Amino acid sequence: MDFFDKTGPMAVGIRLRMLSGAVSKEAVRICALGGVALKPKWLPVFFALSSGGGRTVTDIAAEIGHTHPSVCKIAREMSAAGIVSESRGKPDARKNVLKLSKKGRAMTGAFGELCGDVDRAVRKIGRESKCDLWGALGEWERLLSEKSLYERVKAERAARVGRLVEIVSYSKKYRKFFVDTSIRWISEHWKPEPADLRVLSDPKKYILNRGGRIFVALFKGKPAGVCALQKLGDSANSYELSKLAVVPESRGLGIGRALCRAAIAEAKKLGGSRVFLESNTVLKPAIRLYRSLGFREIPVENPEYERVDIQMELSLGRRRRGDG
To answer: Which residues on neighbouring strands pair with residue 275, listed in sequence order?
Structure first.
């Protein structure tokens, strides 16, 4: 077990497969011990049919957690061994109905007794190990059905990567990166419009000097993304989230979310009542991000860019001027 001492729980899948393989090998000897001429891979199907009556392949597959083709293959093998008979379902002749043959039914008594022996032996192992493995497996299955291992690993990765992301305020040294990254992002889908080029021609004049902010995301100390928070000229003290862009090699690391959160936090700090944004629904990951942050869709009115087909806003919970 030196390998598993080194890997720890990370290798749970490998260890479970090894345990499963060891148990499967024992199953061959156990079946022979009980005089039950069944292959280990047949056991789930035989068990499902042992209660009597016919069952469709679809029903059996759903019960034992196998695929439909897998059950069909096992059924053919068991049929060739004379243990299972197949027939067409009534009234739906498209469905295969399986049931135990006379030979198969004759095995159910010994099979039931053997199942009892196995159950008691497994329970004793549980008591000796002081660990309810069967119960733990059920808990693992429940937890993984609620949130897959992939999603859990993804969350851990995001948390780890998040610690490597630093959001800093704009300074002159980031001007070229801000402009180039914004242009490259827009150009991936559209042609930069006059409004884009005007703002990017002088970020200080059109964003900072008008009460806005620009944020730069550093990943491992290197610039990886940008976004702007532009002050809108309304009486409600609103801000616009704009020019959100992440370099291709750093996407999928949660940098866009970190930039958005920094901009929203700054808008609150500045006393803003809401954060507004314009986007396009072709950018599905971005729209999902905005929704997850609390933005809601509003009717599109006077968009600044031709590419805009959706506008969204996030209320910051502050009373607007003029409200009662």
So the answer is: 239, 314
Preceding omega of 9 cis (within 30 degrees of 0) = no
Angle at 14 between CA 11 and CA 15, to 5 degrees: 85
pLDDT in tens, 268-309: 999 999 999 999 999 999 999 999 999 999 999 999 999 999
Amino acid at 36: V
- The structure's pTM equals 0.62
- The burial class, CB within 10 Å (0-12 / 13-18 / 19+), for 158 is middle
Spatial distance between the Cα atoms of 286 and 256, rounded to a whole number of angstroms = 9
Angle at 209 between CA 224 and CA 197, to 5 degrees: 60
CA distance 142 to 147: 9
Which domains are present in the chain? 2-146 (1.10.10.10), 165-315 (3.40.630.30)
